[in-house]
Amino acid sequence: MGDVTGKEMDNLTFKSDTVLSDVHLHCPNKSHLMVRLNAVGQPVFLSYFKLLWNTDDQASEKYARETTTEREHQYRSGAELTSKDGNNLKYEKELNTEGIEALLDEDGDLDVVRRPQRASDSEAEDLMRDRVYPVILMKGKENAFEDEEQECTCRNVVKIEHTMATPLEDVGKQVWRAAFLLADYILFKRDVFRSCTVLELGGGTGIASIIMGMIASRVYCTDVGEDLLAMCEQNVALNKHLMEPGGGEIKVKELDWLKDEFCTDPEALYSWSEEEIADLHDHCTVIMAADALQ
């Protein structure tokens, strides 16, 4: 018995592999706020994602232009210096050597010059670091939308509830980079999707459908799994202020594309009505998906 037990201990078997999205992996811990436990006991986190509109793009372009101008000035100054001392190769070599040594520290390693941190950034970081909030965990329930009105409603912030480090069958409960790529494309092609009826396959947390809901007339955000769809519906409720100016509507529905029929069971929470099926067939002109898994 002892020999058999020893062999079993040497051969480790993982019953459930978990994966973590790189979106959550590269975010600092202070960006995630645990808000509750879902119906199956998984921790649910709330993250904020900022939309970069034209004002930010213009600021970036201005910085790029200033940087380019500064580099051109340095290049021209260097060219003038070279032309003046072109006949003195020894002096030029000494000048280059001194310039290289100026970039090294006392150990001879490259001393990287970093952009100085602004006072406002450090103050904001200190404020974020000092704030500690108690968290009360509660089991997920059907009407879990009580606190949505208390959250800030900014036009450039998307609030998403999600889980982290899930098994493969629950990866739709995380936010993935492909959803960001699709959302960026939607915002870039706003005129193409304006006033459309859209179907999203494998909507997951619903972030792509939320962005599309700011532009399109109606979005059917679909996936499978009652717990996942409940989380998606919660995210739609948290971001309804983003859809209201354009009059967009998002409907969270169950859709398994491996099946031939829609779920029309009236007992199911996310089933389809005959009117919704007819509307989808008659008016849907866009079908989108990001990292859809079967």
From TrEMBL:
Keywords: Methyltransferase, S-adenosyl-L-methionine, Transferase. GO terms for molecular function: protein methyltransferase activity. Transmembrane segments: none annotated. InterPro entries: Methyltransf_16, METTL22, SAM-dependent_MTases_sf. Pfam families: Methyltransf_16 (PF10294). GO terms for cellular component: nucleus. GO terms for biological process: methylation. This is Methyltransferase like 22. The gene is METTL22.
